[in-house]
User: What shape does this take?
Amino acid sequence: MAERHPELDAEQAHLDWSYACLDEARERAARVTQGYNPQRGGTEQHRHERESIVEGAVNRLTQLTLGERSLVFGRIDPAGTGERFHIGRLGVWDRNQDPVVVDWRAPVAEPFYRATGRQPMGIERRRHFATRGRTLLGIDDEVFGELASADGEREIKGQGALIAAIEASRTGRLGDIVATIQGEQDEIIRAPMPGVLLVQGGPGTGKTVVALHRAAYLLYSHRFPLEGQGVLVVGPNRLFLAYIEQVLPSLGEAGVEIAVLGDLLRPRVRVDGLAAEAVAAVKGDLRMTDVLAQAVSDRERPLRADVAIGFGIYRLKLTVADSRDIIRDARRRSKGHNAGRKIVEELVFAKLAASARRPVEASAVRDQLRWELPVRELFEWMWPVLTPAHLLHDLFGSRALLRFANRKGHFTDEEILRLHRPRVGHVSDVVWHFNDVPLLDEARALLGYRPGKRDEDALRTYGHICIDEAQDLAPMELRMIGRRSLNGSMTVVGDIAQATGAWANDGWNNVLAQLPQKRDVQRRELSIGYRIPGPAMSLANRVLPHAAPGLRPPQPVRDDGDPPRIVRSEPLDDALVDTVLAELEAVDEGNVAVIVPDSMAADVRAVFEARELPIGGANRHGLDQRITVVPVQLVKGLEVDSAVVVEPARIIDEESQGIRSLYVALTRATKRVAVVHSRELPAMLQE
Assistant: This one.
């Protein structure tokens, strides 16, 4: 039995005091919000001030609600000062405003994460706490100076707390790592905000959670202006958003917007599903910018014949030549297509008035004719007001329009016609693919605001943007994200070895080329694998040289662990169920992901349902069952206790980046990996 730490009672007393101060702060914040009436008397300025106070109190209440998460997780003792700083999830003060708990993001807390034997950063002791709720279970001390590790640069800080966190059962949701952040992770979290920070990290290195902690850190250290400008986190799909959605609230930051690209569209449309990869390859191509610009230009058209319109006893005329001049002038004077409509109307009414036999005011012509059907048809032909959805619905619904917009030969005829799809009755009935989203956004940028619809069409920008799984983003998607950056401040994370899909990038320069670069790019690499045990990483490392030649594998923290199981069976069904049940028993309270080729997902689900085994699916609510069938296309970024990878050869054959998809599948588990197959194993996985 481990010896009881002599300061356990004293630290428990401090923990109790910390929670007492936190509870009192929560009560004070709650009192501010009680009985508040925004319509109560006073000047408008006074009402605004009261609203600001209450808003601040509500935000503070959000920060102070911890649930079962630990408030305090460690302590640092600066050398020779007699001071002690307890480090925790958020800052807590007593009634005299003396600090009881220091926020983990504060500068004074930096040595807790960064100090090493060679660079102790002025501290003589670092202490890690193991807690459950409000109870202190254990203390782990690191002493600096003569007792410090000689290998101080690469040592793992808080080894006991780190391993306990790694080996805890997965819940289907990503947890924070605020108590166990390691030195190389902390360097990224606290890196300067301006410009683009690029983070390459192999599986299990914590790149996603580091990016989220960085968002929380930047909001703390740059509260003004980021609280007003906003922070955006962009994820690859809704399953991923469900997986990460609890991290930032657990750090006291509920105001960060977490979204997929479809959430950022204005005006909103219905988005669901993915296009076929051959179609997605065209839609993501940067050459689409020229095609869409040409499609917009093609809707700015001179008349096909002269027009005569009745105005009292007169016939007002607009010739083809007149209309051609008007289109040219409107293009020169307008900053966006929709803004040019007003200019076209102004010039058309002026030309019509000038054609009268006696002087007529253009304003009189406008007032009398603007709602007449022939005039409205004229404007709709020459310069229609368009939404992005209208433009793309018309374009994709006509082979002739597609060919005409591609007349400069940016794509082959076969490529451009991949975009064709039958028109539906009304554009509001269209359900767009996620691959259409950047095209709709590009169209919005070309079209500009519709008259009177500025709020509905407005583009939201952000002071900082975090992009996860950036290695998969197409140039058009990156261009869309870059448009939302207010100042070029971004955190971009991913792993080239895990690049899959229609736009799998082979290097980071392709990604960076489409992002704002107002400053030199900061490049960082996460080299230590925290999630994946050594034996499982060894299996995945057989695939890595084929997935991304030359890329270094992460060094696992845990060299021990259960060896991967390789099970071959024909037929597959019984062996698969038996393997999953064995894995479920082996991980105790943990979860098991059955990772399958997309073509097998329905059949594998049916196998488990036929045996009346509770089975979950990968959906926008996350992994909410102990056994979940996950198509390999959706598994990226997730972590589970055990991964059962089904038919590696089919994954390689069916996915456009099959070897990389297999590498992703083999690197999801924190404890155990099994491979179940009936077909021959790929050579790289054979003994």
